[in-house]
Amino acid sequence: MSESIEHRGIVESIEGNTVSVRIIQLSACTSCQVHGFCGAADKKEKIIKVIDNSGIYKVGDEVQLCGQTSLGRKAVFYAFIIPLILIIATIASMTAFGFAETTSAFAGLIILAIYYLVLYLLRNSLDKQFIFLLKKLN
Fold first, then answer.
1. Contacts by 74-83, CB closer than 8 A, 24 or more apart
2. 1 has a pLDDT exceeding 50
3. For the chain, first and last CA: distance in Å?
4. Would you tell me how many other CB atoms lie within 10 Å of the CB of residue 113?
5. Is the pTM of this model over 0.70?
6. Which structural domain range is residue 72 located in?
7. What's the Rg (C-alpha) of the chain?
8. In this predicted model, what pLDDT tens digit does every residue of 12-52 receive, in sequence order?
9. 92: domain CATH number?
């Protein structure tokens, strides 16, 4: 298993020391022979912002974004594992205290909404944890 995540991209814009890189995220089925005829093929463009003080990049440069695999695991933990634990714990505890199932489920959804709101409010500090590096390609 590789210790880094790498994506090829194109420098979209540069503002100060922030380089915006456009990457194309492909699903696994795009390599299939018949992906053009299938509705399951998925292709998304994303803009990733990277802090870079080198000043060697220009708009239109082809670059490679590099990140550690631990970043991916951390993102999955924050986005899926913690919310799953919160919703199950909320529903189970409220049901154990005698609340109706619909009330427990609604409370689980409220807790989930609050959690994602907190994540949104902490996005700037989370951005500092998820660091990508740039490598210039020929």
1. 74/129, 74/130, 75/130, 78/119, 78/126, 82/115, 83/112, 83/115, 83/116
2. no
3. 26
4. 10
5. no
6. 4-136
7. 20
8. 999 888 888 998 766 555 555 555 555 545 567 888 888 88
9. 2.40.50
